[in-house]
Every structure is written in structure tokens, then in C-alpha cells.
């Protein structure tokens, strides 16, 4: 399996139609946004970072939320995602037990 695709800050900014200083600012405001840093300090954004940046841009620019409002929205999504992941894991473990005969 190949390495994950990464984008330099200028490339990420162009993809999102934003300025690089906006990405650097959002990095300070949203703890979930943690680009990879090279030895020279250059930021490299993963596909997951790009997805998060698109969400932040949507919340701020299209929905008109404040930074604080966007933070709260992201926290709610994260909480729901974690809850769903726990539920799926529990269901999968139950199915495994049933299939292996351990659930009887």
C-alpha cells in the first residue's frame, strides 16, 4: 500500500480557494487540524486534513457560524462519530460471537 497523498499549504489553499494565512490561523483555532510537519517545519496536509478544512470552510463561510460555533459543531460531530463507532464495534463483536458459536 502506497503512502498517503499529502499537499503543501499552497496546494491545499488553492484546492479550497483560501489564502495560506487562513489555513495557518485555522490550525491555531481548531485542535482537530494537525497537519504533518516536515523536519524543516513545512506543513503537509493529508486527505483527512483537506476534508476537515472543507468542513470548517462550509461551517464558517456558507453556514455563517463563528469560530466558536464551528468548534462546537465539530465537537458534536466527533462525539456522534465516536458513539457510532462504539455501536458498530459492539454489533460486529456480537456477530462474530454468533458466527463462531461463542454467543450461545
Strand content: 5-15%
Strand order of the largest sheet: 1-3-2
The string of secondary-structure elements, in order, is: EHHEEHH
Q: Helix amount, in percent?
A: 55-70%
* Structural class label: mainly alpha
Shape: elongated
Total strands: the figure is 3
Total count of helical runs of at least 4 residues:
4
Characterize the largest beta sheet: strand count, sense, and whether it forms a barrel.
3 strands, antiparallel
Low-confidence stretches: none
Radius of gyration: 18 Å
Average pLDDT for all residues: 90
Measured between the Cα atoms of the first and last residue, the distance is: 39 Å
Describe the overall structure:
By secondary structure, the protein is mainly alpha-helical. Helix content is 65%, strand content 9%. The protein has 4 helices and 3 strands. It has helices at 9-16, 20-29, 47-62, 67-100; strands at residues 6-8, 36-37, 43-46. The chain has a 3-stranded antiparallel sheet with strand order 1-3-2. A hairpin with a 5-residue loop joins strand 2 and strand 3 (43-46). The longest helix has 34 residues, at 67-100. The model has no long low-confidence stretch (mean pLDDT 90).
Amino acid at each position: 500500500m502506497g503512502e498517503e497523498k499529502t499537499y503543501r499549504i499552497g496546494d491545499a489553499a488553492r484546492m479550497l480557494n483560501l489564502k495560506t494565512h487562513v489555513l495557518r490561523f485555522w490550525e491555531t483555532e481548531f485542535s482537530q487540524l494537525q497537519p504533518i510537519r516536515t523536519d524543516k517545519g513545512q506543513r503537509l496536509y493529508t486527505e483527512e486534513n483537506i476534508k476537515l478544512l472543507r468542513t470548517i470552510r462550509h461551517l464558517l463561510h456558507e453556514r455563517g457560524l463563528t469560530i466558536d460555533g464551528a468548534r462546537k459543531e465539530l465537537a458534536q460531530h466527533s462525539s456522534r462519530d465516536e458513539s457510532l463507532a462504539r455501536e458498530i464495534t459492539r454489533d460486529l463483536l456480537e456477530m462474530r460471537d454468533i458466527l463462531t458459536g461463542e454467543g450461545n
